[in-house]
Amino acid sequence: MEDVEKQFSNSFGGTIFKGGYWKPGNCQARVKMALIIPFRDRYEQLSIFVHHIHPVLNRQNLEYRIFVIEEAGDTRFNRAMLFNIGFKEALKFDHFECFIFHDVDLIPENDRNEYSCPSSPRHMSVAVDKFNYILPYTNIFGGVGAFTRQHFELVNGFSNKFWGWGGEDDDLFKRINAKGLKLTRPSMQLGRYTMIRMFHKSAQPDEQRFEKLRDSSQRMNHDGLNSLKYTVESITEHLLYTLVTVNLEEAF
Ligand code: NGS
Q: What is the per-residue pLDDT across 170-224, written as a single tens digit (0 to 9) for each?
């Protein structure tokens, strides 16, 4: 990370401001975007990610800030809840209108895959090298997704009930449909991503994920942004990202 930071402060044209904030110097960006990354113990991937993503976002002339939401303690990883927290914490910083929910291990391959918010929710990572650049199943919403603030509030964010691996993104897909929104996708040429593969112990699957998925639509109005509970341990503005470290409490 130190090397990446040096590279940005020395040779890069447009300096990134503290906290991983940037805006174009010669024009006014149309929207302010918050890029939210759920995180725990993946520092190598995070340095590779920020090294690649800042130049892409700068070339797209966006105004944005990168938020890394870190789950402290030894509760099971809850990717969805960290996204919800990122949404709430980002709004304490600024009036973001657009939110990109992004896994730390996905690098966009095409600069024209726009990191902004279209008129309906967007699944951006449609062609990942790990899946031989095809969609593994039609309703997949994993990896990278974009929402306007209004649409994310309309679906009440993600469910907070998925602990461990799997299901939370499928649940979000159901929420989008339940509210009559239509998921959009870039073409398979634009939505290409490379996965940063490293050896890590992967999270244990949530054994109850299929049961939880069955009653998605009944839960969505009272399980999400409006039932979110967490405590913030610290907020640190690093050079290339804002780190928000939080504690969660496992509840079902
Ligand atoms: C599905 C999971 C999704 C996940 C997708 C791809 O099976 O949450 O695999 O995962 N759904 C359930 O388990 C119900 S991946 O191979 O990218 O880790 O996003």
A: 999 999 999 999 999 999 999 999 999 987 777 899 999 999 999 998 999 999 9
| Tens of pLDDT, residues 124-171 | 999 999 999 999 999 999 999 999 999 999 999 999 999 999 999 999
Ligand 1: residue whose CA is nearest its atom 15: 142
b/e 180-212 (16+ beta carbons within 10 angstroms → b): ebeeebbeeebbbbebbeeeeeeeeebeebeeb
Q: Would the CB of 166 count as within 6 Å of ligand 1?
A: yes
Answering whether pTM is above 0.90, one says yes
Atom in ligand 1 nearest the alpha carbon of residue 136: 6
Reported in sequence order, the residue ranges of 129-179 that DSSP labels E, i.e. its strands, are 144-148
| Residue 15 CB neighbours (<10 A) | 11
Tokens of 193: 């991503």
DSSP assignment of 36-74, as one string? EEEESS-HHHHHHHHHHHHHHHHHTT-EEEEEEEEE-TT
Q: What share of the chain is helix, strand, coil (3-state, %, to 5)?
A: 30, 25, 50
Q: What is the ipTM of this complex?
A: 0.96
Q: Is 145 in the pocket of ligand 1 (CB under 6 A)?
A: no
Residues present in the chain in total? 252
